[in-house]
Every structure is written in C-alpha cells, then in structure tokens.
Amino acid sequence: MSTTRCATRCAGQAIACVLAGCWRVSPPKVSIPPNEDELETVIPLLLWSGAGALAWRQLRHTNLPPSVLAELHAAYVGYAIEAAKHEAAIAHTFQILRAGGVDPILIKGWAAGRLYPESGLRPSGDIDLCISPLELPTAESLLGNPELVEYHIDVKHTEIDRFSEVTFSELYAHSELVPLLDTSVRVLGPEDHLRVLCLHLIKHGAWRPLWLCDVAVSLEHLPSAFDWDRCLGRNLRHARWVKCVLGLACVLLHANRDAVPSLPQLPRWLVPAVLKQWGKNYDSKPPLLREQIRENRIGQTLHLLHERWRNPIQATVDADGRFNNWPRFPYQMRDYMLRTARFLPHLVTAPAAALKSKTN
Questions:
Q1: Is it the case that residue 99 has pLDDT exceeding 90?
Q2: What is the structure's pLDDT at 336?
Q3: What's the average model confidence in pLDDT over 264-291?
Q4: Which of 316, 317, 293, 296 is nearest to 305 (CA)?
Q5: For residue 87, what pLDDT is reported?
Q6: Tens of pLDDT along 211-229?
Q7: I need a surface site. Which of 45, 56, 103, 127 has the fewest CB within 10 A?
C-alpha cells in the first residue's frame, strides 16, 4: 500500500474513532484516541464533511490546542444558529404548500437531525421533499413563489425514484406528523426513513461520515414494533445494500448491534473503501470536463478523468450490482467507460474548434 493511501486510510480511521457514539445524550470518550498530530490533520476533514459540531461534543474535553477546539466550537455554534433558521424555513414551506393543496413528506436533513440530542448538531442543507406525482405540477408552481425560492427545495430523490419498490401512497400511509414550531411536518415512517438514509449514503459512495451518523442515530431510535421486512424491502439485492450500511454503522461508529436482527458479513473491500473516502481531501466542485475540453486543455482533461474514477461503492450502486467479495474493478471500469464515452465527441471536436478560433 502506498504511503498516501495508508495516510488516507489512517485519517478515515481517526474520523471513525472521533465520531463513534457521538449522537448519544452522553457520548463516550474517544475509545482509541489518535495522537494529537493525527487529530489536527483530520479536523479540517471533519469540518468540511459537516461533522464539526459532532466532533466538538466528542473532543471538547481533550487536550487539543485551543485554536483547534475553537474551530470545532465555531462550527457547533454556527450549526445551531443555522438550524433555527432552517426550522423556520421548513415550517414556512409546509404552510405555503398545504395552503396550495400539496401535502409533502420531508426526508433526510431535519427528519434525521431531530433525533440528535441537540438542535444543530448536523448542518442545515436543502429542504428535501417527497411529493405525490399527482400533486407535483401544483407543487412546482408553488415552489416558484419568491418566498420559497431561497430555501433550496429539492423534490427529486434517486433513493426513492430508482431504488424504492413502494409507491408514494404507501410512503404516505406509513408517514408521521411531528410538531415543528407552530405547525406540524410530515416525515417518513421509521422503516422507510432508515431505508432511505441507507440508500442515500451508498448512492453517493459513503463519502460523508455525517450520513453514517444519521443512520446510527436512527438505528438507535427505532420503535419496539419496527417492521424489518418493510425496511429492507422486497428487492433482495437492495436489502443487502441496506444491511451492509447498517453493518458499517455498527463496525465503524459502534452503533447498537442488538437493534438489528441479523447483519451480514461485510464485503472485505467495503470498510477500506469507506475509510478511504472519509480520509480523502478533495474538491467537491472540480472543474467541469466540458470547460477543459472547450479550452483545449487535453492534459488537464485526462487528469480529471482519472480523478473521476468511481469509488467501488458508487460504481457498484450505479451498476445495480451485488455487495459481495468479488473484485470491484469490473464495475468501476464499466462506469469509467460509460462516462468517458459521453465525452469522446467533445475530445474530437475540441482541437478543431480551438484551431478555428485561433485562425479567426
């Protein structure tokens, strides 16, 4: 293993140590304290990934330098302030949509964040809504309201549209109303909520440790009558995906294993792939390939293609593949070839366009 890859894996392991049990009312001490130099290295990764406030709860009583603790505390305070604004935005959104005849379901985000012991332990992002196909045209019209545009509302979710075998009517029938400020918000039932969180995490290659914390806190808030058959769904392949994510929450973050009736043995490549993602410091918005091609930067284009080599988790999900011990390379190569093929016409036409612009 290369030095860089080993360092990345070690950073990912340090992040897992810091976040283990961080969602509990009384979080445990960091069970395997990394050395201070290593912790200072992963602090930027924790902040960048949105886990800064959770890390603050874990590390505030340690002997880390005050400057490092100040960064984490700033994230903790900032998330709390933003959470208050976000809650008001969610309540306002539901009031406007309901007044227009639309009854949405809130997924992810605040629906997961409300289970943490304090408001604002996770950063506020988009308002993710699941809306009936019959109400979608009305909803899209209402979402054009200037009062709602600034809230960044998302109504398209692959983890439901592509991977879910249940209809909106079924999701709605099992949903729940929970209080928020001066209104109520409809959220998924616990079975559908946990499944969506698991599918969302692996759809994105599990690169964000915060999402596994969401899975862990949801796993430890299951009702006594939780229906595992409903949670896992009818598709056996997707059910194994969900079980593997739950296994990751238990292995990496020490979530309560007793809450899950049976966990599979994780594929041997899965944990290393997650730790590599967590320890990787990369630009979330790399330059667009089309822009590099248009400017005839062929060398930079080839470098970006290399950087876009899919991690094994995401490549497997993109191919609707199996989470087994077989090598991931075929899935990764398939994904690479498909995406490269889409840009071949641009690679062919770019030099000619650049030459034409020079002659003009």
A1: yes
A2: 83
A3: 76
A4: 293
A5: 97
A6: 999 999 999 999 999 999 9
A7: 103
Of 304, 285, 317, 286, nearest in space to 343 by CA: 304
Whole-angstrom distance, CA of residue 290 vs CA of residue 350:
9
User: What distance in Å separates the CA atoms of residue 324 and residue 268, rounded to the nearest whole number?
Assistant: 8
Strands (E), the chain: 105-106, 127-130, 153-154, 176-180, 183-187
The angle formed by the CA atoms of residues 308, 343 and 280, to the nearest 5 degrees, is 5
User: Considering only CA atoms, which of 287, 348, 279 is closest in space to residue 16?
Assistant: 279
Are the beta carbons of 253 and 16 closer than 8 angstroms? yes
Tell me which residue has tokens 């595992």: 228
Q: Are strands 127-130 and 153-154 parallel, antiparallel or unpaired?
A: parallel
Which residues contact residue 331 at a Cβ distance below 8 angstroms, ignoring those fewer than 6 apart?
310, 312, 315, 316, 318, 319, 321
Q: Across the chain, what does the average pLDDT equal?
A: 86
**DSSP label at residue 127:** E
Q: What residues have CB less than 8 Å from 45, skipping those under 6 apart?
A: 11, 15, 278, 279, 281
* Most trustworthy range by pLDDT among 146-160, 288-302, 344-358: 146-160
DSSP string of 137-193, one letter each residue: HHHHHHHTSHHHHTT-EE---HHHHTT--S-HHHHHHT-EEEEETTEEEEE--HHHH
